[in-house]
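This section describes the prediction task in plain terms. A model, or a person checking by hand, is given the sequence of a single protein chain and must write out its three-dimensional structure as a string of tokens. No templates, partner chains or ligands are provided. The sample shown here is typical of the held-out split.
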Amino acid sequence: MPAEPIRVGYVLKVYPRFSETFVVNEVLAHERAGADLEIFSLRPPLGGRTHPDVGEVAAPVTYLPSAGLRAADHWDALRAEARRSAAGRRAVAALLADPDAEQARDALQALLLAAAVRAKGIAHLHAHFASSAATVARLAARLAGVTWSVTAHAKDIFHEEVDPGLLALRLADARAVITVSDFNLGHLRTVAPGATVHRVYNGLDLSRFRFRPPVDRPPAIIAVGRLVEKKGFADLVEACAILARDGRDAPCRIVGEGPEEPALRAAVERHGLEGRVELLGPRTQDEVRRLVRGAAVLAAPCVVGADGNRDGLPTVLLEALALGTPSVSTDVTGIPELLEHERTGLLVGQHDPPALAAAIGRLLDDRALRGRLAAAGRGLVERAFDVDRSAAEVRRLAWPAPASPPLARPAIEAVA
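The expected answer:
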């Protein structure tokens, strides 16, 4: 008899989050493989927008209480856990002594999650991001006596507010740590040498990304991402100003929203780029695919922010290569693992608008280069970034193996 799948709880800070399509891609891949999942979100989603793919997720979603929590709630939950058993008393003592439980909200949510784990028969917890979701998953797993694992991305490991000691504590305590690039892998093995860390690239459901050669596309530029410093869109506006001064008619559309929007609009106006550079706001996944598929170039001029924040390996670059849109980006973190210069894309230095403009110009002018990079990029995505294979690697490396059912006892025939 085949082994029954274990029940796995996915722990996320916010679900669904409009910018985290990779989470939905991974969950759907697990479900296609027969995984038994439940999603736990520490915060409710904001803004009301979501992608249609979220509606295909079968896993139930539990929102752990987060707003309006009182100190009394914390102590009530601790007392309830301590009264449960001698093991519960030991778990409470360990929780109170744990440096990762200093935030009362995290500790209380861990207590509530542990109760849900026991009630729902969950055997393993997997967190996305090695920050608050990992803290709650780790503490809840210890309280409930189950294993846990985590996928580490970018801001959760590189931002200036990350406490290296607490990060190392979390990672060393996990059954396995997954991260999304070899660059991250090397960093985490330095930060947490006692942790079991594996690189598994985020993947795409390639059936949703039809490849179209880019040789006959109009000379349009597309960029997609949150309007934050690390995306480098300020440099893209400067590059578009250079292209305009050179007499190029190459419209640029930037998809996304975020705190940098006023500054970007001011830069567009300052350079007289109204009508040439458009800020389109957020768009659904289907709209993004249509816009990327219709452009001659995708620009992703990522930078390391002043606060240390940076991208891990932007999903939009995977999508562009899958769709056949040649891309220009920078050498931030894991990006060169996807965009090999002159083979699967073009790379320029950070904060270098003239080089960015020159690279975009090459792709706008050279149809053969666009075609060659697009074909090689699609081949790489098919080999290394298929979400079903990536999700299978997460299950193999990070989750406990399903328990095989007990063998049936042979029937004993009565002897006359």
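For orientation: Residues 407-416 have pLDDT under 50 and may be disordered.
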